[in-house]
Amino acid sequence: MDKLNDTYLILEGYVDVNKYRYLYFVIMFTAYVLILCSNSTIVWLIVVHRNLHEPMYMFIAGLLTNSVLFSTLIYPKILIDLLSEQPTMLYSVCLFQWFAYYSLAGAEFFLLAAMAYDRYVSICKPLQYATIMRKKNVNILLVLAWLLPTCQIGAPISMNVNKKLCKFTFKGILCNSTVYKLHCVSSTFLNIYGLVGFVNIVFVPLLFILFTYIRIFIITYRSCREVRRKAAQTCLPHLIVLLNFSCLTAYDVLLLRLDVEFPTIVRFIMTLQMILYHPLFNPVIYGLKIKAIYKHLRKLFFPGTMV
Description:
This protein has helices at about 20-50, 55-80, 90-125, 130, 135-160, 190-220, 225-255, 265-290, 290-300, and strands spanning about 10, 90, 170.
């Protein structure tokens, strides 16, 4: 196995895949269709309705588009694996999946940070909102949300292309940072770079989000009840999504940093949380909790009802 393209990894992350193969397939295929339909519907509503052409809704569209991209890069391979006698993956494909997995996960944090900044300017600096959150600035923030983590993650992936493997069994169903454990020699530089990357694409945006929301709550606490109510309506969905995604990300980081062998069933359930629960959770939260989006959803699915 001298050539990278000839190196196959055996995926051992599935639980009783031979016994429940078709049940898994139906569940995952149904989930994939629901993810595509639910996220794409809200994005479509934001695009076609002019009253939703505001920065907050554009960032929501970016976040839901990110979920569609993430799912489209993950689900087809999983569906193929479920119909295979022995799930395997080329090492080159594994590296690409690793790259996409962390790039899009990092983009999620940057998009949530951009949304927090938008709410901060809207509530704390309302007179300057139109100037600061111009269309050009919103587009720049959207581009940077995907570009910054992509550049950050791209470097270590390229360094791993020619790494020698001593293990060919991967204890998971999709590739993430635990690929390091397959290498014959552990790289101190890559471990440090990975830690710096984690700080840059997760910890820094997270601190920024917490800072902006603390400022928002301090200012709204001193305001009237109506201002507090409106702030809660727009900020609460973002905080719920942030908390949900942060918990799932924390597990993934601990999986590599702590030298602990988690049971296969635990790995499998946590992976399903990331690829099933989270992409379905976002459109439900934003579709039901954001009043303007909810109105258009009601008109779309129940055109005869009063909103």
